[in-house]
What we know:
Layout: E1 13-17, H1 21-27, H2 32-53, E2 57-64, H3 72-88, E3 98-102, H4 110-123, E4 130-137, H5 139-155, H6 166-171, E5 183-186, E6 205-208, H7 218-229
Parallel strand pairs: 1-2, 1-5, 2-4, 3-4, 5-6
Amino acid sequence: MTENTAGTGIPAHIGIIMDGNGRWAQRNRLPRSSGHARGAEVFRRITRHCESIGVKALTVFAFSTENWKRDRSEVESIMNLLRRYLKDAFGFKKDNIRIHFIGERERLAPDIVELMQEIEEFSKENTGLILNVAINYGGRDEIVSVARTLASMAARGELQPEDITEQLFDSMTFTADSPPLDMILRPSGEQRISNFLLWQCAYSEFVYMDTLWPDFTPELLDRAIEEYGRRSRRFGGR
């Protein structure tokens, strides 16, 4: 994992819990699918803004392992929207954005998994913003996945238990190619982590905002970054 970019005032790595699509739709007397569609458009706008201001990595929470519990019609609507925006994601190629999908793919439809693989392949040589899109992702699942891999390696004699360090564990997480997570942003007024990047957020700064995600703007992101810049980050040292 690369080091943080110090002294710029811009977080090297931002995580966003894109929350509030359903409430936005209800507030505007629209179907929940309209909220998700509007939220996807905002996601594209915010991603390009992060690229333009020098953010090195952006990780967005698109669909959690818990979201499968939602009404079946809503899940199907989200998956159809995901198909559309995965196809649109090929437009990110001109933005020099490297796209990586994190989470478990077993429950996803084969055509969605194929699109994800194609996007990762075509963008792998890009050198700009690293965009991690969390789909069927859970922070606890990620930690368990790394633990299982390490346990298997130990069982095969490839390492000893005392060889397992924070650095080794960190190098096997889904975001290992990204800088350390500096800031987590959650719009919508909710103030919880919701099983997002549990390992990575150990010393992240949390910024909460009342705006629902479909109403989120680049100007609000700039305001969140200004708040981040006012924080004194001591990492437990004093």
